[in-house]
């Protein structure tokens, strides 16, 4: 998909709106590749965090800890549904929008056909190929959205769980004995748990820091494209 969008830009296809869509679509496609590749590269970090989360659920000791984990689980699940549901809605809306545009164009006997994403520079001489490309781009768009949003949902889920574990650690800290001579094993377990959570934070940072940087750069491209669109739309010519 990034290749076809780059081709649109190099050939100066479509109007300003279409070129801006291509401009933002290219980094989005590359971001999807990055978000899908890096967790695989750091699969040991991911496995460590997932196994740790499973052990946390199996080692619940009291009702307060369970309540904290349940609340954070609901937050993580809500974020998961919003992110993936929103990306699916955007993908379907984009695909259906271009289908409706093409239906209106066909009614006017025009030879122009719009792709699922990018500029409408094609003609309808090879309708079968155009439809195949449209279907292929629609599938690529859906996969890209799921890769980008799925990675965000996974990251958010891990963060909410980790936040709950730090809340439990804070609660345990408040229940520590006043003297080191009283039940030293409790203090030892607390320090061990603290180091374990810090190790998870390190794995999380190592796995997702580059992804976050790429995401910020992509958002910068979105903002830049939106500003250019507003500028060219409302500029006053002398």
Calculate Rg over CA atoms: 25 Å
Helix content: over 70%
Given the C-alpha coordinates, what overall shape results?
elongated
* Strand arrangement across the biggest beta sheet: 1-2
> Helices and strands: which structural class?
mainly alpha
Gap from first CA to last CA:
39 Å
Task: Characterize the largest beta sheet: strand count, sense, and whether it forms a barrel.
Answer: 2 strands, antiparallel
Transmembrane segments: 20-38, 74-100, 112-134
Keywords: Cell membrane, Membrane, Olfaction, Receptor, Sensory transduction, Transducer, Transmembrane, Transmembrane helix
Membrane topology: Multi-pass membrane protein
GO molecular function: odorant binding; olfactory receptor activity
Primary descriptors:
238 residues, single chain, transmembrane helix, two-stranded antiparallel ribbon, mainly alpha, 6 helices, elongated, receptor
Can you put this structure into words, describing what you see?
- It is elongated, with a radius of gyration of 25 Å.
- With 238 residues, the protein is an all-alpha fold.
- It is built from six helices and two strands, in the order H-H-H-H-E-E-H-H.
- Helix 1 runs antiparallel to helix 2.
- 82% of the residues lie in helices and 2% in strands.
- The protein has one domain.
- The model has no long low-confidence stretch (mean pLDDT 78).
- The two termini are 39 Å apart.
- It has a two-stranded antiparallel ribbon with strand order 1-2.
Question: Care to give the gist of this entry?
Answer:
The chain has 238 residues and is mainly α. It contains 6 helices and 2 strands, in the order ααααββαα.
